[in-house]
Specification:
globular, 2 helices, 150 residues, single chain, mainly beta
Length: 150
Amino acid sequence: MVFKAKLHDDIVSHGGITLKAKRDFGWFGNCGIKIYMKDQPAFSFYISGWTNRISKVENNLDFPFELINSNEAVSGDDRFRLNINRSYLFTGNYGELEVNGHTVAKLRLKQRLFGIELTMQPANDQLNDETKLKSAILILANIVHLDGSI
């Protein structure tokens, strides 16, 4: 999956599942995010720029999904976590995605002139569509401010 974000524009993901995240920026880095799948609202939340706290969650998915913060999420018995490489600006290696403690994907970041492009490369090609969707929502929560829009 590839996630593309431009300054003050929507974030779009392609590759298996197509999502569009509309961002509504507020004061002090606060941001409301509405995620659409096939032009239908799928998931929305509000993220605090100061504390990274998630609130005002609206889940329109067919399964339970809870964002703990921009790096962690829980869905049923599954725990999703993003481990971010702090030197990603120099290496392009943004981090890894873990599900239940097992690395399932690597994340590569490319800086663009007015935005970013993040690629999720699965460790194996056996990720089902539901796992991809849950992973994509967590990644979208994590990269909301990454393109420098605030």
